[in-house]
């Protein structure tokens, strides 16, 4: 077990000008579960493959523990990887798949068998050890891939979207299994996903990437409450945060005539900037028609039982359309579709961003 | 010129005739009332093939087997005498032994050479790979007789003192050796092995194409997984890549094996079976054409046929298994 450190690590593909991963600085402490998340093409998989040694590090360095592994072959890095499509060896039985790394290390046949049996028990694979991968279900294959990684007790686990080939229900249960397994084994894990729910639920910390650049690293709740910039604000959370155009005004931000009150520190930073005012769906409430608020016409009510979401188009004081908004509402007393109402936000939870640079202005 | 036109006409008539035959038969069968059309249609399409296979393959094979029990003119029944006689002759046993050597060395050589080329070409750029592969595939277009003629010059020998026009002797003498009459040196059956090189050279392209396609079909992730699991490049190749292309390796091996069983042209052109290089195919021609011994020639072919059958059965089984697991 070891810590992992990316130091200004970059990857530029031959024939390309823009780096796939641009000077990544990231420290992952011993035993931590780090999730790399971002839209496709953001460089999260490339970063993981650089750590595994499957992609060359063009510049910068990667450390596992105190060892600079930037130029070390994958086989000598002492890491294990779980691939998206599992990459099981189709000609080997489950037991042989799991024992392959041990065999390469020169572990005796009996030693291999004992270790494989232990791990198979841990994952509930005892009855399948003699089968070929082809004879297993998707979920079982996924577990074999996990088992293959666990058996060798590596310094670091690398997981590249290991759940994306499972159906929705299995994905949710496997998600918690992997997270609890990792905590039990205490092996440093780097986990790549495009699914922000997976990222939020599994990671000790989450790193958000976009266009090869690291946007923010933090514990899940901080990402949600204090996104560093517009991209993270829009990416984390489902339904996504409402991001409305606003301009600075006396006492707050003017969003189409609705003045959102802001604290003094934030106000001091706003003058002369175009603003984006961010409101999470759960921070809206429906107010009386003569209270200050944003006029909204309801276009859709989504009832999920525990929650309900209101989708509507907001208009400014001149009745011209402003933006689409989403608000969480009381599921037991929802407004009707087509109804006009007013939404006001919780000023304490509002986030304000610079529309140009994307940076957060709220403390 | 006239010959070329004749050949062209024959091809056109053959292909067009076959096409027309099927069209007409199909048209006829479609006139039949409802259920009869479905019942008869399969036979209409298989029928001509069966007829041709019977006339040109089954009948001659049976006839040959029949003749192998008769004397040189095919008149007097002699029982197993031809077989007994042949199997007692050291020259025939020598040919059998040579054939066995060919059967082991050539398919294995072709598979190994094809694998090496496929793996090495895979490391090149797409363009480089295609160029290299085209060159290595080129010999496939040359007939066995043509190839043998080319290789005669490679192995050519002139007595000492005269200029060596043979490529191999040129290299050999450059490094200080005395010119060698390669084709005549049968110690350790060197000349037989040199002839096998010709066949390997001819067939490597075929093996390369199939094996290269199979290697490209191996999922990259399994190779990456092996590297991460601590396997060296050599271990990855033999323990992860080769097992995944094994069915293709077998297909190539068996196909070349069957081709090798029938080897004749190279021997005929290069040595005519002399210098201890004779094989069954050449022996058959010698018996039939040179000596006019129909019975013995037939017996040789029957023995060859019996040798091929188990290989064929294995190949068909292997093929079915491949289809089943697909």
DSSP strand content of chain B: under 5%
Largest interface: A-B, 26 and 18 residues
What is the helix content of chain A?
25-40%
Please tell me the total number of domains of chain A: 2
Large-scale geometry of chain A = elongated
CATH architecture of the largest domain in chain A: 3-Layer(aba) Sandwich
Q: What order do the helices and strands of chain B follow?
A: HHHHHHHHHHHHHH
DSSP strand (E) fraction of chain A? 25-35%
Structure notes:
- The complex is a heterodimer of chains A (363) and B (326).
- Chain A is 26% helix and 33% strand.
- Chain A is an alpha+beta fold and 363 residues long.
- Chain A has 2 domains: 4-235, P-loop containing nucleotide triphosphate hydrolases (Rossmann fold), CATH 3.40.50.300; 242-354, Nucleic acid-binding proteins (OB fold (Dihydrolipoamide Acetyltransferase, E2P)), CATH 2.40.50.140.
- The two termini of chain A are 37 Å apart.
- The relative contact order of chain A is 0.12.
- The mean pLDDT of chain A is 91.
- Chain B has 326 residues and is mainly alpha-helical.
- Chain B folds into 2 domains: 2-67; 81-325, MetI-like (MetI-like fold), CATH 1.10.3720.
- Helix content of chain B is 77%, strand content 0%.
- In chain B, helix 4 (90-122) runs antiparallel to helix 5 (126-137), helix 6 (144-154) crosses helix 8 (190-217) and helix 11 packs antiparallel against helix 14.
- The two termini of chain B are 49 Å apart.
């Amino acid at each position: 077990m070891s810590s992992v450190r990316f130091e200004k690590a970059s990857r530029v593909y031959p024939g390309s000008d823009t780096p796939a991963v641009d000077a990544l600085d990231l420290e992952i402490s011993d035993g931590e579960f780090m999730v790399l998340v971002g839209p496709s093409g953001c460089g999260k998989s490339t970063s993981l493959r650089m750590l595994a040694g499957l992609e060359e590090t063009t510049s910068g360095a990667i450390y596992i523990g105190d060892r600079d592994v930037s130029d070390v072959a994958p086989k000598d890095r002492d890491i294990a990887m779980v691939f998206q499509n599992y990459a099981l060896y189709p000609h080997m039985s489950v037991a042989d798949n799991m024992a392959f790394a041990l065999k390469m290390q020169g572990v005796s046949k009996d030693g291999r068998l004992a270790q494989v049996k232990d791990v198979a028990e841990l994952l509930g694979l005892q009855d399948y050890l003699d089968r070929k991968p082809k004879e297993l279900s998707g979920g079982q294959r996924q577990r074999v891939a996990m088992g293959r990684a666990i058996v060798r007790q590596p310094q670091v686990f690398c997981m590249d979207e290991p759940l994306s080939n499972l159906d929705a229900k299995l994905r949710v249960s496997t998600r918690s299994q992997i997270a609890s397994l990792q905590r039990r084994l205490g092996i440093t894990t780097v986990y790549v996903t495009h699914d922000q729910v997976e990222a939020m639920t599994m990671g000790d910390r989450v790193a958000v990437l976009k266009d090869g650049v690291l946007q923010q690293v933090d514990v899940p709740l901080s990402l949600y409450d204090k996104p560093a910039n517009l991209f993270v604000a829009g990416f984390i959370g489902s339904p996504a945060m409402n991001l409305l155009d606003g301009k600075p005004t006396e006492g707050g931000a003017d969003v189409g005539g609705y003045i959102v009150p802001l604290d003094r520190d934030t106000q001091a930073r706003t003058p002369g900037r175009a603003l984006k005012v961010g409101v999470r769906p759960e921070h809206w409430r429906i107010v009386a028609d003569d209270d200050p608020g944003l006029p909204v016409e309801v276009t859709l009510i989504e009832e999920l039982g525990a929650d309900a979401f209101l989708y509507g188009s907001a208009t400014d004081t001149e009745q011209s359309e402003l933006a689409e908004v989403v608000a969480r509402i009381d599921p037991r007393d929802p407004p009707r579709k087509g109804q006009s109402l007013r939404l006001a936000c919780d000023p304490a939870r509002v986030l304000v961003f610079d529309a140009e640079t994307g940076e957060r202005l709220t403390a | 010129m006239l010959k070329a036109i004749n050949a062209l006409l024959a091809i056109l008539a053959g292909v067009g005739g076959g096409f027309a035959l099927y069209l007409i038969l199909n048209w006829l069968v479609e006139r039949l009332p409802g259920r009869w059309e479905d019942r008869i249609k399969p036979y209409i399409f298989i029928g001509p093939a069966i007829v041709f296979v019977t006339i040109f393959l089954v009948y001659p094979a049976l006839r040959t087997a029949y003749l192998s029990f008769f004397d040189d003119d095919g008149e007097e029944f002699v029982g197993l005498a031809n077989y007994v006689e042949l199997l007692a002759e050291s020259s025939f046993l020598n040919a059998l032994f040579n054939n066995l050597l060919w059967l082991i060395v050539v398919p294995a050589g072709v598979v190994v050479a094809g694998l090496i080329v496929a793996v090495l070409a895979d490391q090149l750029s797409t363009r480089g790979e295609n160029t290299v592969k085209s060159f290595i595939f080129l010999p496939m277009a040359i007939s066995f007789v043509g190839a043998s003629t080319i290789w005669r010059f490679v192995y050519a020998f002139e007595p000492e003192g005269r200029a060596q026009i043979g490529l191999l002797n040129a290299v050999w003498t450059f490094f200080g050796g005395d010119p060698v009459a390669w084709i005549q040196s049968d110690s350790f059956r060197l000349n037989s092995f040199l002839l096998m090189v010709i066949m390997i050279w001819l067939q490597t392209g075929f093996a390369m194409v199939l094996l290269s396609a199979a290697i490209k079909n191996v999922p990259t992730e399994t190779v990456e997984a092996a590297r991460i699991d601590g396997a060296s490049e050599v271990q990855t190749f033999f323990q992860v890549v080769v097992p995944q292309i094994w069915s293709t390796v077998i297909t190539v091996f068996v196909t070349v094996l069957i081709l090798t069983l029938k080897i004749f042209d190279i021997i005929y052109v290069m040595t005519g079976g002399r210098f201890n290089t004779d094989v069954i195919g050449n022996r058959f021609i010698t018996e039939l054409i040179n000596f006019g011994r129909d019975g013995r020639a037939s017996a040789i072919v029957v023995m060859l046929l019996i040798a091929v059958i188990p290989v064929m059965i294995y190949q068909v089984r292997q093929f079915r298994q491949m289809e089943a697991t697909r």
